[in-house]
Amino acid sequence: MKGWIYGEKGQKQWTQKIFKQSHQFQNPLHQNLKHVRTLQELLGLEPHKIHSVVVFIGNSTFKTAMPKNVMRSRDYIRYIKSMNLKLLTPTEVRIIFKKIESKRFANNLKTHFDHVGNVKQLVKEKSATNNCPICGNSMVMREAKQGLNKGNKFWGCSRFPKCKGLVNIT
Asked: What is the pLDDT of residue 27?
């Protein structure tokens, strides 16, 4: 990613700002948590034996304080090397590699398109729940009081003015 990155550990959405354009994206810590839980279940490992690390590749600048496990690419090797407590034996590591390889999906276009389709379906289902696209809180029906959209109804975040998330009604 590039640009300025804004986000906090508990937020559902983070923001990427490039010049005057802002884009929302899923909090990578939340996304990574799902990956970690899947690995824990697949491998039968205790939670303390898997560490979640989020690495931003590209020319980005964090504009909010990030948790210690969220970093830019030049910092991740130092972070990983700081984890010097041995949690797995070499035999356990070999067993884990075999389990992962045996459950791995084929690396082809069909798998990619299936994954993209599943993600799109999840996003569609989630957006149908009427939650704020920025913070995830409930939305409230509102009516524009001024401007070009005066009188038009829209869904606004219940946390307004702290959160300015909105969804137009089509």
From this structure: 92
Q: Could you tell me the pTM of the whole model?
A: 0.61
- Residue ranges of the chain with per-residue pLDDT less than 70: 125-129, 170
Structural element, H or E, at residue 29: helix 28-43
Phi, psi values for residue 77, rounded to 5°: -65, -45
The pLDDT, as a whole number, for residue 129 is: 58
Distance between CA atoms of residues 102 and 21, nearest Å:
43
Q: Distance of alpha carbon 89 from its chain centroid, rounded?
A: 31
Distance (Å, whole) CA 114 – CA 36: 21
CA angle 131, 64, 122 (to 5 degrees): 30
The beta-strand segments (E) located in the chain are 3-6, 13-18, 21-26, 54-56, 60-62, 70-72, 139-143, 153-157, 166-168
